[in-house]
Amino acid sequence: MSKISSYIRNSRAELSKVIFPTKPQVKQAFIAVVVVVTFVSLFLALVDLVMSSTLSAIL
């Protein structure tokens, strides 16, 4: 039983050290992720379009 109580005590101590993000930080990170994913997907779509049209012209 000593190991369990020690584990719980240590877990609570570690959780008290965690800094959780604020709502504005979460919103900013979400917007950044959406912008990056949109940019990368548009870039890959453009590369796909160029490669497929080039391959179609060759064949």
Query: Alpha-carbon distance between the termini?
Result: 73 Å
Give the beta-strand count. 0
Beta-strand proportion: under 5%
Number of helices: 2
Structural class: mainly alpha
The share of residues in helices is over 70%
- Low-confidence parts lasting 5 or more residues at pLDDT below 50? none
The gross shape turns out to be: elongated
Give average pLDDT, whole number. 95
Rg calc: 24 Å
Largest β sheet strand count, sense and barrel closure: none
Write the layout of secondary structure elements.
Elements: H1 2-17, H2 23-58
Quick synopsis:
With 59 residues, the chain is mostly helical. Helices cover 88% and strands 0% of the residues.
Describe this structure in words.
By secondary structure, this protein is an all-alpha fold. The protein has a domain at 19-59. 88% of the residues lie in helices and 0% in strands. The chain contains 2 helices and no strands. It has helices spanning 2-17, 23-58. The mean pLDDT is 95.
Which key features would you list for this structure?
59 residues; 2 helices; 88% helix; mainly alpha
